[in-house]
Amino acid sequence: MARRIIICDGAELARLWSRIGTGENEDLTWIPRDDEPRARPTGFRTLQGGLSAEAIGRLSPKPGNEFAVVSEETAFLRTAVSVIGKAVPGAPILALSDRVDPDDLPDHPCLLRTGLRSLIRDDIDEEFTHLSNLRRVVDIRALFEPREKIGILLQPDPDPDGIACGTALRALLGRKSPTAPLISFGGVQRPENRAMIQALGLDVRTVTPDELDEFDGIALVDVQPSVFGESPPARVRSVDLVIDHHPERSGYDAVLKDIRPSYGATATILTEYIRACGMELRQRLATALVYGIKTDTQLLGRETSRHDMAAFAFLHAHHSPALLRRIERPALPAAGLRALGRGLVSSRVEDGVHLLVLGRVREDVIPQVADLALQAEGAEWAIAAGIVGSDLVFSVRNVGYVRAAGEVVRAVVEGLGVGGGHRSMAKGIIPLKAFRKVYGGASRERIRVALHDAFVIAIHGEDG
Ligand SMILES: [Mn+2]
Question: Does 161 lie in the same domain as 266?
């Protein structure tokens, strides 16, 4: 570590520096102030001759040595920066001050200003945040401790955030699925969410409202009771715990409630719990939470708070990249690859649109082909379409700086089917029956031409 030369303005700041603890590689110097007794702070030597280039020179600084100047006076810091610059041109200088305006400091090629007390203050505030998260965990554990069987209720067709949070809550309670199953009124539907469940070896049980009676504790994560319709089942109107990041709703009671609408994902709240109580974080759980934050915030884009960023960074150090890849890119079945091959034979990029028609495929193949198709040269839009059951299903991707994918898909399916999505990803479903009626057939070529034209119009339509 580079040698550091610390220069403190007066005994008070020198003592503050000592109290924080000094590094082994630090040379501590101080300059007595006129208005204070000259008692030398322990461990510090007086910078003989005051703040001058000669005094700095007597410390025999070498190239690569770093300086820190601690002062709340603009004049002191200004002089310090210029005499250090004179003694050791270009020396790295850290100016530590809560009051001095960085704009008042002289030009110096390698100068950083930061606070001193405020630095410590921020750390203390952060510890208090951990403490309040720890209190939540203590309360939640105490509430559920005496309960035999707890139902962890997720929204219908749970998304990765909900699934990850349910798993995290169960781990925080020190339970396994027999005494704390993840439950939902509608099973996991979306293929990418099923891929997550499978890769993580999880299980979400579908229950009816009546079946809730078998639990003597109910916890809701990433959802609030009002989501279950106008008048939710009685058992759900009065629950034990709600942890969520959606705006707070009324019409229900919860013994404990932790709702943080400024958070991009509920997984961030659970991650803060895990950090605060020092629970061992297994790779699988960390991966689930990372994926929950990624999907809920559109990869830390939309509606991301600094809490989400901090949780993501914490989780990233613990997660398994291989497992995350398996969730995000589930294995393609051989039949899916053959469909991709057939689709590629007749695909081309026209008007910036790369459209692949796959024929009949497993649904999870479609979004993966769309991801791949966007890599084609000249493609600003990629569309992968396939037939699943009696529907034409398509996934849409774009490069991000064009019209929002969700809007485009809504325009394409209008009056025919359903669709929606975000800025750069969207999905649409058109029943084949409706498609045939409008386009007179549903052959591969018919689908290709019809979708291409519909997309070009939807993409360029409104703005010419
Ligand atoms: Mn969520």
Answer: yes
